[in-house]
Amino acid sequence: CTKNETYKECQSSSCGERRCGEPKPDACTKDCATRCFCKSGYFRIENGSCVRKKDCPKKDRCYLKPKTGPCKASLPKYYYDYDTLQCRQFIYGGCGGNANRFDTIEECQKACK
């Protein structure tokens, strides 16, 4: 095991550790995995290492271009502009669009900065 891992015997594979960007599971699987798991307070990332939550990679949603969507409402929302590394306002139509849409600039900054 690495320094951020601990060896566990017969641990539920779905509850033995957390992954960046995934919510805590509602229920644990009944399987029995014996291996190195991320220590408490650490999260598994795609390359297999365990990092603190603050070091989890930013979500893919922050790289998407803003989409107004097909509806005709004029709702002010915020999106993360990856080119300028800033949260910016745009007009959302009320339906469709994508996940790079936040109600407040604070939500945008928390999710993407």
From TrEMBL:
GO terms for molecular function: serine-type endopeptidase inhibitor activity. SMART domains: KU. SUPFAM superfamilies: BPTI-like, Serine protease inhibitors. It comes from the Eukaryota. PROSITE patterns: BPTI_KUNITZ_1, BPTI_KUNITZ_2. Residues 62-112 form the BPTI/Kunitz inhibitor domain. Keywords: Disulfide bond, Protease inhibitor, Serine protease inhibitor. The keyword Disulfide bond applies. InterPro entries: Kunitz_BPTI (IPR002223), Kunitz_BPTI_sf (IPR036880), Prtase_inh_Kunz-CS (IPR020901), Ser_inhib-like_sf (IPR036084), TFPI/VKTCI-like (IPR050098), TIL_dom (IPR002919). The keyword Zinc does not apply. This is Putative carboxypeptidase inhibitor smci.
